[in-house]
Amino acid sequence: MHDATAFGEIQQVENLGFCAIGDGGPWSLSGAGALGGTLPVNPSGGLVSRGYPVSATGLAQIYELVAQLRGEAGARQVARARIATAENGGGLYGIESRRRSHHPGSNPMNAPLPTPQDSLHNAPGYAQLILTALRRRPDHLAFRWRDDGRERSLTYRATADMIERTAAALVCLRPAPGSAVALLTGPRPEAFVVMAAACLAGIRFAALHPLGNTENDAYVLRDSGAGLLIVDEARFAGRAAAARAVTEVVSLSALSDLVERTPPQRWTLSRKPAISSTPAAPPASPRA
Questions:
Q1: Which of 19-23, 79-83, 167-171, 259-263 has the lowest mean pLDDT?
Q2: What distance in Å separates the CA atoms of residue 252 and residue 124, rounded to the nearest whole number?
Q3: What is the Cα–Cα distance from 99 to 166, expressed in whole angstroms?
Q4: Strand partners for 145
Q5: What does the pLDDT read at residue 89?
Q6: Number of Cβ atoms within 10 Å of the Cβ of 105
Q7: What is the tens place of the pLDDT at every residue in 200-253?
Q8: Which of 5, 41, 208, 223 is 20 to 30 A away from residue 182, measured at CA?
Q9: Residue 159: which pLDDT band, with cuts at 50, 70 and 90?
Q10: Would you say 205 and 171 are in contact if contact means Cβ atoms under 8 Å apart?
Q11: Beta bridge partners of 182
């Protein structure tokens, strides 16, 4: 299984039936998907710690999977590799773009592609497509997890609202123009929400794997040009402390507090995502 993010790994393991829906998080953190693990292996999700270079996406996924199935992956080789799957968010974008570009009731896969001008200026972005999909079934369950010994859940509607509020909060934190926002957390909704929020706000995003280490973190943060790292310091205190030598660090709890204080924002579809009103001012000291 080839994917670059922890939440994608969890989704695929659950959807393929290797564990119950909602149980993919503990499975991922157990290391069972690492090289030599007992369940489907994710050779890129662990970055350098799992023996594969950073940012192996797109065509690199296909190259790696072909090498694995041919037994030509060298030190990265997964034993007894017979079946492989690839995941890429671009597929969702392509399908949803076609769905929205034709008349209701027709077959989206037979519809003509939008013109280049429409694709560039009018087609919805990745984050807008995520929000559209979430609002299509607002009462469906999006996430189920345990926090402080309690079962918690989040509906599609609540997830969409959280994405929009988080996007506004990221704007409030004012990362340096052109820099990326990085995230280090375990199997929590924020692993998906912050990624989608960064897309909505027009901010580059990079994910640090929960099974990585400080050396890998430093490499990814520098290579991605991350100007801000959001981290769950309750779980990754040591890695958060080390990351401060590379970039600015904000705790996940501080971001959550800012999100709670940020009023709902209406995001408009344009070439560059923008909010319709001035975002709420950041707290005096959001950094942890």
A1: 19-23
A2: 29
A3: 27
A4: 152
A5: 54
A6: 5
A7: 888 888 888 888 889 888 988 988 888 999 999 999 999 999 999 999 999 999
A8: 41
A9: very high
A10: no
A11: 206, 229
User: pTM above 0.70?
Assistant: no
SS (H, E, C) the chain: CECCCHHHHHHHHHHCCCCCCCCHHHHHHCCCCCCCCCCCCCCCCCHHHHCCCCCCCCHHHHHHHHHHHHCCCHHHCCCCCCCCCECCHHHHHHHHHHHHCCCCCCCHHHCCCCCHHHHHHCCCCHHHHHHHHHHHCCCCEEEEEEECCEEEEEEHHHHHHHHHHHHHHHHHHCCCCCCEEEEECCCCCHHHHHHHHHHHHCCEEEEECCCCCHHHHHHHHHHHCEEEEEECCCCCHHHHHHHCCCCEEEEHHHHHHHHHHCCCCCEECCCCCEECCCCCCCCCCCCC
Domain ranges of the chain: 6-76, 89-121, 126-275
Confidence of residue 139 (pLDDT cuts 50, 70, 90): very high
Q: Are 287 and 281 contacting, i.e. CB atoms less than 8 angstroms apart? A: no
Counting Cβ atoms within 10 Å, is residue 51 exposed (0-12), middle (13-18) or buried (19+)?
Answer: middle
Q: Specify whether the CB–CB gap between 58 and 64 falls below 8 A.
A: no
Token reading at 199: 């897309």
